[in-house]
Amino acid sequence: MYNYNTDQLQELDLKHYLHPFTNYKKLAEEGSRIITRAEGIYLWDSDGNRYLDAMAGLWCVNVGYGRPEIADAVSEQIRELPFYNSFFKTANPPAVELSRLVCSLAPAHMNHVFFTGSGSEANDTVVRMVRHYWASEGQPDRKVIISRENAYHGSTVAAASLGGMKPMHAQGGLPIPDIEHIGQPYWYQEGGDLTPEAFGEKIADELEEKILALGANKVAAFIAEPIQGAGGVIIPPSTYWPRIQEICARYDVLIVADEVICGFGRTGKWFGCDYFDIKADLMPIAKGLSSGYLPIGGVLVSDRVATGLIEKGGEFNHGFTYSGHPVAAAAAIANLNILMDEGIVDRVDKVIGPYTAEKWQPLTEHPLVGEARIIGLIGAIELVKDKDTRQFFADRGEVGTICRDICIENGLVMRAVEDTMIMSPPLCISEGEIDDLVGLLTRCLDLTAEKVL
Ligand code: PXG
Which pTM value belongs to this model? Predict the structure, then answer.
């Protein structure tokens, strides 16, 4: 469509395009990969190389690439009504229908949704909404939101503040006031001699300690991803979420479950909250809501919070031009219809998730792999120096980067978070494609081991 060859695209890219989360000097040395098309679970670059996309874009293309139903819905809507806002007492049919549909899939006590353009905006909305909620309830001092180290909640000022990524805080003077962080339930790295179950309780108890140190009447909410995604697919021990919920209930602290990655089938349930039996007050959503075909996010709101906002909140002075964008909403509706009509979420739970787990677990037999963990279609392997002692390589991140680069050279897109290799493929992936993914990964692990062991 655009009449450039790869060299020209790379040259123009370097000249004008500042990429997200990128070291610009390094990019200038190495040049960018230009992705030109995609189908199913595969991507092609501008030189015609094919890649198996084991990251579903960026944890989002749940229904896979190239779905004509979404293209048709978008095309129809863009001709009918390409844009209108939802301010000033207006709405549009796709936004209304999407609100109905998404609430019908959400846990029974969640019947309202606030739309945004992204997951970051959803989490900005969370900060403003929970503080406004408590102020409306006559408790304006409940402002503090407790989050976790190594959490990822997005890249805007408030979302990055909620996140627990130190390199992000270091740029731009973050976090904003009244955001606190506790430890993460990362047993493999931090559990020491404790069993996963004992460690899960110990880390959850940090929440109670923090609430007591701050004073419960100052704490508005606790926010966490059911499974930490960008932090390295950190699956909490079974004891963690029950203990967190007990603590939040004891001090009347709202639970915000960030479903941006876990939502829409990733765990084999519609939401991570369904998988872990979490009763959340707010659920930020994005990514799988539209399978990334168009940008859209939102916050699902419980009856408790919605009733407070509606009855006592007055005007909520918050919103985005693209809140409830009709075309993005039409894409999301078409996407959710595919997930429902093809029974994709149930298939992750009962068929392809268990099939993948069967292939995933034996990766621990590889000399580099200390742990293989997976739920539904979100998984990770830990690359370590010594499996028995769970000891990582001294130069943390080096082996992961080597492995990631080898994967890409061999046509497999995976993410490395330090030395944790993670995958989150499209949910429509077939058994044969899982075999290809695991086969390719095994070959890449062998090539990595040749270099580093
Ligand atoms: N919450 C969670 C749990 C996320 O994973 C966001 C919020 C922010 O969403 P937006 O749409 O504003 O990007 C995310 C996004 C990575 C990576 O490298 C992960 C995300 C974004 C960019 C990179 O794994 N997750």
Answer: 0.98
